[in-house]
Structures are given as structure tokens and as C-alpha cells.
Amino acid sequence: MSVPKTEGTSNYEYVTARVQARRAALFDDEDYRKLIRMGPGEIARYMEETEYESEVNALGSRYDGVDLIEHALNRNLAKHFNDLLRWADGELYEFVARYLRKFDAWNIKTVVRGIYSDADSEAVEEDLIYAGEFDRQFLERLVEAASIEDAVEMLDNTRYGDALAEAYEDYDATGVLIPLENAVDRTYYEGLMSGVTETDNRATQLYVEFLQAEIDFRNARNALRIARSGADLDPADYFIEGGELFRASELSQLSSGVDELVTFIRDSTYGEDLSAALDELERADSLIGFEHALDAALLEYSDHLSHVFPLSICPVLAYVLAKEREVDNIRAIARGREAGLSEDEIENELVIL
């Protein structure tokens, strides 16, 4: 992390108050409706009138159009999450820092996907988010890796090294990225849950409850991806430990049929939270739609925990998710407009509560 850990006790009141102010500045549905009707240049100018002003102005002489929007979004995201680390003390810092390692996982998967699809390294670099532990210099070298095998070797001395080396054999045999991406996710979530599950501390218990829901949703998403990929892979081999909803053996059985998986989730404790996601999956048979609905359900769940436990880690993590959603939505709109998609097609790409 670029922000060093501070000593002292957790300062939940201070950090949640700052987070509440930041949430109030996030784009709402009306902002998205306006952006959908704009071209990339107009979107950049609209952002200039918001809290993205400093990033757009700083980058405006080097980039334009979608490139300017992409760079401004990623720089703004990193700034906001580094602010969280600057504000937080003690155990709260540790919780936030662990959670923000998700951007290391994001960056690894982005690089691997870029190499797999033979994408231009500059285009891959535009999608990186510098909010995790990996520094910019390392990520710039990683983007230049000539092959996935080279990238895996470069990650050998990181927390992801052993898992990726093992998963590379499955990737090499199947030609699909699922083993590598799952190895990254499993390493990330195992690191999150390490040493925090056995505790009487209510703040830590809330942190664990939030992560358990995220892991459950991730397992459901992965099971469906494997089922739809057609690859000869057992979902149990890619099960992420730490959730509450599935056992590995159940996931393997349930993923063979979407109907069985949907019924299982409907009958679980998440049935109400995921009702819209499951309806979308059944109605449109769309994995992308289901994944967007899962993201919306996790946002709603995090907001629910934030309202019930306002002076806890929950509002902070809910803010991280909400800020990510804003950036993802603006990016989807800009790319959709550049690609000439219709307003309805772009709206289908957004996660809106």
C-alpha cells in the first residue's frame, strides 16, 4: 500500500463520517441517464464539473475522449481508496488494506486476459487500478510480459505465486482462463479471511459476515461460468473457502443444472437479497445479466449492513463497492457510446439499484 499503517485504535466514527460525505457525492441514476445521451467528449466535460475535476484537468493535455475518461476514473479511484487508508487507524486500517488487495487481484486478471486476447499493452495498462499493494513499476513490467507463462513467473514472489504456478498446468491443458482467474480469487479471499474468523469482537464479526456473503456470491458466479464454458472442469476444484452457503461437493452437483442452482439459492438465506438476480437469470438466461444482478444484490446487502451497524467496517466496505460501481458504470457508458451502442444496450451494461 502506498499509505503506511498507522498505530492506535480503530477510529470508526471519524472514518464513517468522512465516508458518508464521499457517498453523497457519488453519481446517481439521474447522472447516468444524462451520460447515456452524451458522447465521450461531453462525458469528460460533465465529469469536469464534478469531483473528477482535478483528474480530468490534470490529464486533459495528454488524453482525450474515452482514453481521458478511463485514466481519470482510475486515478480518481486510487485517490479515494488511498484516502481511506490515510484516515483509518489500527485494526480498521488493517481491514481496509486487506480488502483493497482486490485491486491486485483485478490487475493480475486484467493482464492475463490482455495477454490471452492479444490486446495492446497500452490498452491493458489503461484498465489497471493502482489501489492495491503492487507498485506502478511492477505493474508496468507485468503488462509487458510476452506470455501468460512469463507473467506467472513474474508473480512468483508474490502471495499469488504458488497458486498461479499450480493453476497454470490446468490452463495449459484446457486453454481456458478459469483456473488462473480462480487461483487469483482464492488467494485473495483466503488472505482476507485468514486469522479473523474466530473472534468475539463485533467489528471483526461484521467484517467476516460481509466477506462471507461476497465469497458466496463469487462461488455462485464461478459455478455458472464453469457450467457455461463447456470445459471439462469440476467446480469443486475451484471452490473458494470461507463462505456459508455452499460446500464444495454441493457446488459441483448444483452447477450441472442452472435450475437446481437457482432453486438452491432461492431457498437460502440470500433468497430475498438475490431475488432480482435469479429472476434475471431465469428470464433472460443471461450470465452477464445475472452477474450484474449479483453485483447489485451485494451492494444492497452491504447497504443493509451499513444501516444496521453505522459505526463499523460495513459503511466503509459499502462505500468501496459503491465507488467501484460508479467507475464501472461511467466506463461502460463511455465505451458503449464510443462503440455506437444504443441507449438500451448501454443501460443493460450498468449496475443500477
UniProtKB/TrEMBL annotation:
Coiled-coil annotated spans: none
Molecular functions (GO terms): ATP binding; proton-transporting ATP synthase activity, rotational mechanism; proton-transporting ATPase activity, rotational mechanism
SUPFAM superfamilies: V-type ATP synthase subunit C
Domain of life: Archaea
Subcellular localization: Cell membrane
Keyword ATP-binding: no
Subcellular location, principal: membrane
This protein's UniProt keywords: ATP synthesis, Cell membrane, Hydrogen ion transport, Ion transport, Membrane, Transport
GO CC, alphabetical: plasma membrane; proton-transporting V-type ATPase, V0 domain
Keyword Ion transport belongs to the record: yes
One of the protein's GO biological processes: proton motive force-driven plasma membrane ATP synthesis
Membrane topology note: Peripheral membrane protein
Record note on quaternary structure: Has multiple subunits with at least A(3), B(3), C, D, E, F, H, I and proteolipid K(x).
Family: Belongs to the V-ATPase V0D/AC39 subunit family.
Function description: Component of the A-type ATP synthase that produces ATP from ADP in the presence of a proton gradient across the membrane.
NCBIfam families in alphabetical order: AhaC, PRK01198.1-1
The name this protein goes by in its record: A-type ATP synthase subunit C
Native organism: Halorussus limi
Lineage: Archaea, Methanobacteriati, Methanobacteriota, Stenosarchaea group, Halobacteria
Gene symbol of the encoding locus: atpC
